[in-house]
Amino acid sequence: MFELERERLVKNLIIEGYIKSEEVEKAFLKIPREAFVPDSLKMRAYMDTPLEIGYGQTISAPHMVAIMCEALDITEGQKILEIGAGSGYHAAIVAHLVGEKGHVFTIERFENLAKQAQENLRKTDITNATVETGDGSEGLEKNQPYDRIYVTCASPGIPQPLIDQLKDYGKLLIPVGRMYCELKLIEKKGEKIASKNLGGCVFVPLVGKHGH
To answer: Torsion angle, CA of 88/94/97/101, rounded to 10 degrees?
Structure first.
C-alpha cells in the first residue's frame, strides 16, 4: 500500500517541479517516509505536509525536502552535516544521495528524538548516517570540514560556526527568519561568501547559542 502512495507522491513532486534530478527521484522512491512518522500518523505519511513528531517538532513536508536536496547539488562521496535530525527522514534521503562512500552527520537537541532518529535509520538499513545530540547552532566541529551543511529550522541569522566548518566551495542551506523565513543558499569561496535567496518557507525555530 505505501509503495503505491510513495510512487504517487514522487510523481506529483516531479510534475510540480520540486524533484528535478533522477538521483533525488530514486532517493524518494527508496526511503519509506512511513517509517519516520509516529504510528498514529502513518496513514498520512505520503501527504505533502509537515507532520508532528513530538517535542514541538515536525517532519518536513516532502516538497521542502526535495527543494533542499536539489538546491544543495549533493553528489556521491560527500560529507554532509544536517542541523535538526527530527525523526531522521531528511538525513535518510541525503544518506542515499551520498552513497556508501559518503556520510551524513546530523545533530538534534532533543535526546529522545535523536535516539528515535538513530533507531529509524537503523530500521531502514541506513548505515552511513550518524545522529549526535547537542546544540546544532554551533555545528559539529569534530567532523569538519563538510562539503554541504543544511539547517532544518529557522535561524535568526547565519551562524559563524557553520561557515567556519564548511569546506572551501562548500554550500550551506539555511532558513533565515523566525518562523516564516527566507531559504538562503550560501557558497563559501575562500574569504568570500556568496548568498542566493531561494524563496519563502516555514520552519520551527533554531534554538541554541546562535539561534533564537
So the answer is: -80
Q: Domain span at residue 129? A: 2-202
DSSP-based three-state secondary structure for 103: strand
Question: Model-level pTM greater than 0.85?
Answer: yes
Confidence of residue 151 (pLDDT cuts 50, 70, 90): very high
Residue 209 lies in a domain: no
List, for residues 54-105, the tens digit of each pLDDT value: 988 999 999 999 999 999 999 999 999 999 999 999 999 999 999 999 999 9
Total tally of structural domains belonging to the chain: 1
Catalytic residues: 60
| Residue partners of 97: CB distance under 8 A and separation at least 6 | 23, 24, 27, 69, 74, 75, 76
Determine, yes or no, domain membership for 72. Answer: yes
Compute the chain's Rg from CA coordinates: 16
The pLDDT of residue 178: 86
DSSP summary character for residue 169: E
**How many separate helices (H) and strands (E) can be counted in the chain?**
6, 9
Residue 207 lies inside a defined structural domain of this protein: no
